[in-house]
Amino acid sequence: MSTRVRVRRHNRYAADRVARQAIVGLAAGLLGGLAMNVFSRVVRDDARGRGVQPAQARRSPNADAAVKTGALVYRTVTGHNAPRSKKPTLGVAAHYSFSAALGMTYALLATALPSVRAAFGMLYGALVWAVADEGVTPALGLSRDPRDLPLGVHVYSLCGHGVFGATLEAVSRCADSITTS
Questions:
Q1: Where are the extended beta strands (E) located within 116-169?
Q2: Which DSSP symbol is given to 141?
Q3: Residue closest to 148 by CA, chosen among 59, 70, 47
Q4: How do the domains of the chain map onto residue ranges?
Q5: CA–CA separation, 111 vs 37, rounded Å?
Q6: Rounded to two decimals, what is the model's pTM?
Q7: How far is it, in rounded angstroms, from Cα 177 to Cα 18?
Q8: pLDDT digit string, tens, across residues 19-40
Q9: Number of H helices, E strands in the chain
Q10: What is the DSSP secondary-structure string of 8-54?
Q11: Would you tell me how many other CB atoms lie within 10 Å of the CB of residue 17?
Q12: 120: how many CB neighbours lie within 10 A of its CB?
Protein backbone atom coordinates (compact mmCIF):
# COMPACT_ATOMS: atom_id res chain seq x y z
CA MET A 1 0.00 0.00 0.00
CA SER A 2 1.49 3.30 -0.98
CA THR A 3 0.72 6.59 0.60
CA ARG A 4 0.87 9.77 -1.30
CA VAL A 5 2.44 12.75 0.28
CA ARG A 6 1.32 16.10 -1.00
CA VAL A 7 4.05 18.66 -1.05
CA ARG A 8 2.88 22.22 -0.97
CA ARG A 9 4.89 24.34 -3.33
CA HIS A 10 5.90 27.84 -2.41
CA ASN A 11 3.50 30.30 -4.00
CA ARG A 12 5.80 33.08 -5.16
CA TYR A 13 2.88 35.29 -6.16
CA ALA A 14 1.41 35.18 -2.66
CA ALA A 15 4.78 35.91 -1.05
CA ASP A 16 5.36 38.84 -3.42
CA ARG A 17 1.89 40.19 -2.71
CA VAL A 18 2.42 40.00 1.06
CA ALA A 19 5.81 41.71 0.77
CA ARG A 20 4.25 44.47 -1.38
CA GLN A 21 1.42 44.95 1.13
CA ALA A 22 3.93 45.15 3.98
CA ILE A 23 5.98 47.80 2.16
CA VAL A 24 2.87 49.80 1.25
CA GLY A 25 1.70 49.53 4.86
CA LEU A 26 5.05 50.70 6.18
CA ALA A 27 4.95 53.76 3.90
CA ALA A 28 1.29 54.38 4.74
CA GLY A 29 2.08 54.22 8.46
CA LEU A 30 4.89 56.75 8.13
CA LEU A 31 2.62 59.07 6.15
CA GLY A 32 -0.16 58.47 8.69
CA GLY A 33 2.16 59.50 11.52
CA LEU A 34 3.06 62.62 9.56
CA ALA A 35 -0.63 63.36 8.94
CA MET A 36 -1.29 63.11 12.69
CA ASN A 37 1.49 65.62 13.32
CA VAL A 38 0.06 68.00 10.71
CA PHE A 39 -3.38 67.57 12.30
CA SER A 40 -1.82 68.51 15.64
CA ARG A 41 -0.20 71.61 14.16
CA VAL A 42 -3.46 72.80 12.64
CA VAL A 43 -5.83 72.00 15.51
CA ARG A 44 -3.67 72.88 18.51
CA ASP A 45 -1.51 75.50 16.82
CA ASP A 46 1.48 73.37 17.82
CA ALA A 47 4.48 74.61 15.84
CA ARG A 48 6.45 71.43 16.55
CA GLY A 49 3.61 69.13 15.45
CA ARG A 50 4.33 66.43 17.99
CA GLY A 51 1.09 64.52 17.43
CA VAL A 52 -1.79 63.94 19.80
CA GLN A 53 0.12 62.44 22.73
CA PRO A 54 1.44 65.57 24.52
CA ALA A 55 -2.04 66.50 25.72
CA GLN A 56 -2.15 63.19 27.58
CA ALA A 57 1.26 63.42 29.22
CA ARG A 58 1.45 63.08 32.99
CA ARG A 59 3.74 66.04 33.61
CA SER A 60 4.84 68.09 30.65
CA PRO A 61 4.25 67.61 26.91
CA ASN A 62 7.92 66.69 26.71
CA ALA A 63 7.16 63.57 28.74
CA ASP A 64 4.50 62.08 26.48
CA ALA A 65 4.17 58.35 25.78
CA ALA A 66 6.31 58.48 22.63
CA VAL A 67 9.14 60.30 24.42
CA LYS A 68 8.99 57.87 27.34
CA THR A 69 9.01 54.90 24.97
CA GLY A 70 11.93 56.29 22.96
CA ALA A 71 13.90 56.95 26.15
CA LEU A 72 13.14 53.43 27.42
CA VAL A 73 14.38 51.86 24.18
CA TYR A 74 17.49 54.06 24.33
CA ARG A 75 18.21 52.93 27.90
CA THR A 76 17.61 49.28 26.97
CA VAL A 77 19.98 49.45 24.00
CA THR A 78 22.76 51.62 25.49
CA GLY A 79 22.46 50.90 29.20
CA HIS A 80 22.37 54.66 29.90
CA ASN A 81 19.59 57.17 30.41
CA ALA A 82 18.86 59.30 27.37
CA PRO A 83 20.22 62.84 27.54
CA ARG A 84 17.43 65.39 27.87
CA SER A 85 18.44 66.96 24.54
CA LYS A 86 17.86 63.66 22.69
CA LYS A 87 14.47 62.83 24.21
CA PRO A 88 12.33 64.76 21.70
CA THR A 89 14.13 63.04 18.80
CA LEU A 90 13.69 59.66 20.49
CA GLY A 91 9.99 60.44 20.89
CA VAL A 92 9.67 61.23 17.19
CA ALA A 93 11.46 57.97 16.33
CA ALA A 94 9.15 56.00 18.62
CA HIS A 95 6.05 57.71 17.17
CA TYR A 96 7.04 56.96 13.58
CA SER A 97 8.14 53.40 14.38
CA PHE A 98 4.79 52.68 16.01
CA SER A 99 2.97 54.37 13.11
CA ALA A 100 4.90 52.28 10.57
CA ALA A 101 4.18 49.04 12.45
CA LEU A 102 0.47 49.88 12.67
CA GLY A 103 0.41 50.80 8.99
CA MET A 104 1.95 47.46 8.08
CA THR A 105 -0.58 45.69 10.28
CA TYR A 106 -3.41 47.58 8.55
CA ALA A 107 -2.19 46.69 5.07
CA LEU A 108 -1.82 43.01 5.91
CA LEU A 109 -5.14 42.83 7.77
CA ALA A 110 -7.09 44.68 5.08
CA THR A 111 -6.80 41.77 2.64
CA ALA A 112 -7.84 39.09 5.10
CA LEU A 113 -10.40 41.21 6.93
CA PRO A 114 -11.81 43.87 4.57
CA SER A 115 -14.09 45.28 7.29
CA VAL A 116 -10.98 46.85 8.84
CA ARG A 117 -11.17 49.34 5.95
CA ALA A 118 -14.62 50.54 7.05
CA ALA A 119 -15.24 54.28 7.13
CA PHE A 120 -12.22 54.86 4.88
CA GLY A 121 -9.83 53.44 7.49
CA MET A 122 -11.15 55.58 10.31
CA LEU A 123 -12.58 52.54 12.09
CA TYR A 124 -9.04 51.17 12.32
CA GLY A 125 -7.82 54.57 13.55
CA ALA A 126 -10.53 54.52 16.23
CA LEU A 127 -9.52 50.99 17.22
CA VAL A 128 -5.88 52.08 17.55
CA TRP A 129 -7.03 55.03 19.68
CA ALA A 130 -9.17 52.84 21.94
CA VAL A 131 -6.54 50.15 22.45
CA ALA A 132 -3.33 52.20 22.49
CA ASP A 133 -4.32 55.63 23.82
CA GLU A 134 -7.16 54.67 26.10
CA GLY A 135 -5.88 51.28 27.23
CA VAL A 136 -2.27 50.26 26.85
CA THR A 137 -0.37 53.54 27.34
CA PRO A 138 -2.20 54.45 30.57
CA ALA A 139 -1.92 50.85 31.83
CA LEU A 140 1.85 50.99 31.29
CA GLY A 141 2.08 54.36 33.06
CA LEU A 142 3.08 56.15 29.86
CA SER A 143 0.14 58.58 29.97
CA ARG A 144 -2.51 59.76 32.37
CA ASP A 145 -5.52 57.67 33.24
CA PRO A 146 -8.23 58.35 30.64
CA ARG A 147 -10.68 59.22 33.45
CA ASP A 148 -8.39 62.11 34.45
CA LEU A 149 -8.54 63.73 31.01
CA PRO A 150 -11.17 66.21 29.87
CA LEU A 151 -13.55 65.10 27.12
CA GLY A 152 -11.92 67.50 24.66
CA VAL A 153 -8.60 65.64 24.89
CA HIS A 154 -10.33 62.34 24.09
CA VAL A 155 -12.15 63.86 21.10
CA TYR A 156 -8.94 65.51 19.86
CA SER A 157 -7.00 62.25 20.14
CA LEU A 158 -9.77 60.21 18.51
CA CYS A 159 -9.89 62.65 15.59
CA GLY A 160 -6.10 62.51 15.22
CA HIS A 161 -6.27 58.73 15.04
CA GLY A 162 -9.11 59.03 12.52
CA VAL A 163 -6.77 61.11 10.36
CA PHE A 164 -4.16 58.36 10.79
CA GLY A 165 -6.60 55.65 9.67
CA ALA A 166 -7.86 57.68 6.71
CA THR A 167 -4.29 58.28 5.59
CA LEU A 168 -3.58 54.54 5.72
CA GLU A 169 -6.59 53.88 3.53
CA ALA A 170 -5.77 56.69 1.09
CA VAL A 171 -2.21 55.42 0.61
CA SER A 172 -3.45 51.83 0.27
CA ARG A 173 -5.95 52.84 -2.41
CA CYS A 174 -3.33 54.84 -4.28
CA ALA A 175 -0.97 51.87 -4.24
CA ASP A 176 -3.77 49.56 -5.37
CA SER A 177 -4.67 51.83 -8.28
CA ILE A 178 -1.04 52.01 -9.41
CA THR A 179 -0.49 48.25 -9.36
CA THR A 180 -3.83 47.29 -10.91
CA SER A 181 -3.76 49.76 -13.79
A1: none
A2: T
A3: 59
A4: 20-58+96-180
A5: 27
A6: 0.86
A7: 17
A8: 999 999 999 999 999 999 899 8
A9: 6, 0
A10: PPP-HHHHHHHHHHHHHHHHHHHHHHHHHHHHHHHHH--TT---SSG
A11: 13
A12: 16
